[in-house]
Design goal:
Length: about 100
């Protein structure tokens, strides 16, 4: 049986050694409580959370998503997400926040 070169072994074991991976973009969720439907503007949201991780639309309305998911070799997945729907005047129409942090 051929020996696996040290470099190949290091590359294969690196993710295990590192112990985690993530998808998304970290955001400060402390201001979620300040979001008010029909009051909070897109500019407020950018000021509080920065540029969204994803942008799209739903039924013709702009939708922004802030999301971070972290996986660990041992333990639960940590996840938080904020989805915001804006009306045609760039005011928050609705939002949803979920977190297991």
């Amino acid at each position: 049986m051929k020996k696996i070169p040290f470099l190949l072994m290091a590359v294969l074991l690196f993710p295990v050694w590192l112990g985690c991976a993530s998808v998304g973009k970290e955001f400060n969720s402390e201001k979620v409580k300040d979001i008010k439907n029909d009051v909070t503007t897109q500019l407020d949201i950018i000021d509080w959370f920065g540029v969204p991780f994803k942008e799209g639309n739903e039924n013709g309305y702009t939708m922004w998503t802030y999301q971070i998911d972290k996986w660990k070799v041992v333990g639960e997945v940590e996840s938080k997400g904020l989805v915001i729907l804006f009306d045609d005047k760039n005011i928050v129409k609705a939002y949803r926040y979920e977190s297991n942090y």
